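Structure in, sequence out. Go:
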């Protein structure tokens, strides 16, 4: 049940235009709450105390921004917030309001707190389900299938774009930057980055499960690729290529750079995990050929010319410069999560033709909205989660689960790079897949590892081999 529910929610989150509209976000939220509640009744996985404490501190800091304070105390703690409210809120300016939270818009901050708790609960629920026996391979395979369909649709829409998303949906604003179901191609690239990294990890895991990594000669490798055991490897590799092509065709510079970083992490992991020099070269060669092939298909000259067009980069740099005064004003307690767009209503902007609702840099935006109050616990949470992922990678487990875990971790690193100049994590559909990748990177593999080892032993005892490759790698 869990595997079907997770797959359906992930598919809804992406094909319902990223779930940015209320009619799409409400079913997604309801589904996540239902699945998380069902898993809660069965018991959640135990995370290290450092992760639990850090997550609780982040939630508590966001809640502190919602506590009403006397205006006099608020003026001492957050003078910039009082100044904004005086210019923005008539009741506050006339002294009618005597108490107000640190957040300049408590409703928006409550919304952000709700989503944080939602994604934290989803991560814990998925990790518990994976630790309890849900196949990480099946979940990764389903995400790869969704990603392949999405990539094909994105490429087809690129060739036949009629100013509507998925050929029928007219967004609130003209979709000049749209790709697939996303009104912003950078968000498509962020989602695809995560799915592609999981697929690459799954493909490398299939190589290990099929025994292809142990094949010694080139003749045996070619023969093995024609055997039934190589079918999952070929299918997932082809899916990864299709996803990579769609990502490059978005012409999302942040997405392409982030993907290159994630693929480099996978190449390093493959070289480190491989036993021999030839296997290391093959692992590195596959990653390089993947990047070079899709770049060549799109056109090297086109990409170079596009990266040479620095207009959007200059716009972002100017926006960040306009945001720095806000960071200086709200560095201690923040303006309240999810309130950046409110602040920009009265903030002086260099470019008056565009009204920015986001800072196009999630780290800078977190600094403005959360200040040290939220920023310090958030850094503690990132460090605790990173340490837990490293420990999970060192835990004994079968190669396929290890590689899917590495794929999820590499995707998260790539997403961290993209958020330097984007805000993909603020899109519910992208955030849901990010939380799923985090769960796959964090889940405890002990029980599934034992069952996998037992099944592997039974197969070796009852099935004949073909050369050095077992007949059934995916049982």
């Amino acid at each position: 049940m869990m595997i079907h529910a997770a797959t359906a929610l992930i598919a809804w989150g992406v094909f319902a235009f990223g779930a940015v509209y209320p009619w799409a976000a409400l079913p997604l939220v309801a589904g996540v709450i239902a699945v998380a509640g069902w898993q809660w009744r069965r018991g959640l996985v135990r995370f290290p105390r450092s992760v639990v404490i850090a997550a609780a501190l982040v939630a508590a800091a966001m809640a502190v921004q919602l506590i009403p304070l006397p205006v006099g105390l608020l003026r001492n703690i957050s003078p910039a917030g009082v100044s904004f409210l005086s210019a923005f809120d008539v009741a506050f300016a006339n002294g009618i309001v005597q108490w107000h939270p640190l957040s300049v818009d408590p409703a928006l901050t409550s919304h952000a707190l709700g989503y944080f708790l939602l994604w934290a609960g989803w991560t814990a629920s998925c990790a518990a389900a994976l630790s309890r026996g849900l196949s990480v391979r099946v979940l990764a395979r389903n995400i790869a299938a969704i990603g392949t369909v999405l990539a094909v649709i994105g490429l087809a829409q690129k060739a036949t774009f009629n100013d509507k998303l998925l050929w029928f949906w007219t967004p609130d604003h003209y979709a000049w930057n749209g790709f697939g179901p996303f009104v912003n191609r950078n968000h498509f690239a962020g989602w695809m980055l995560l799915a592609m990294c999981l697929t690459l990890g799954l493909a490398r895991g299939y190589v290990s499960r099929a025994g292809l990594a142990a094949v010694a000669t080139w003749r045996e490798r070619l023969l093995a690729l024609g055997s039934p055991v190589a079918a999952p490897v070929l299918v997932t590799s082809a899916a990864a290529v299709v996803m990579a092509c769609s990502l490059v065709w978005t012409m999302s510079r942040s997405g392409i750079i982030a993907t290159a970083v994630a693929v480099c992490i996978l190449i390093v992991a493959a070289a480190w995990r491989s036993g021999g020099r030839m296997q290391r070269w093959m692992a590195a060669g596959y990653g390089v050929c993947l990047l070079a092939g899709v770049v060549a298909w799109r056109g090297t000259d086109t990409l170079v010319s596009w990266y040479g067009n620095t207009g959007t980069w200059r716009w972002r740099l100017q926006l960040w410069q306009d945001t720095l005064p806000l960071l200086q004003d709200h560095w201690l307690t923040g303006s309240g999560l999810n309130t950046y767009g409110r602040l920009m209503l009265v903030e002086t902007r260099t470019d008056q033709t565009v009204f920015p609702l986001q800072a196009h840099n999630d780290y800078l935006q977190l600094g403005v909205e959360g200040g040290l109050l939220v920023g310090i616990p958030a850094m503690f949470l990132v460090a605790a989660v990173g340490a837990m992922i490293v420990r999970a990678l060192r835990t004994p487990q079968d190669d396929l689960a290890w590689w899917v875990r590495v794929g999820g971790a590499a995707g998260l690193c790539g997403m961290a790079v993209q958020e330097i100049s984007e805000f993909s994590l603020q899109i519910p559909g992208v955030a849901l897949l990010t939380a799923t990748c985090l769960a796959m990177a964090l889940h405890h593999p002990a029980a599934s590892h034992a069952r996998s080892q037992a099944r592997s032993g039974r197969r070796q005892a009852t099935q004949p081999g073909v050369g050095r490759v077992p007949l059934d790698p995916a049982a």
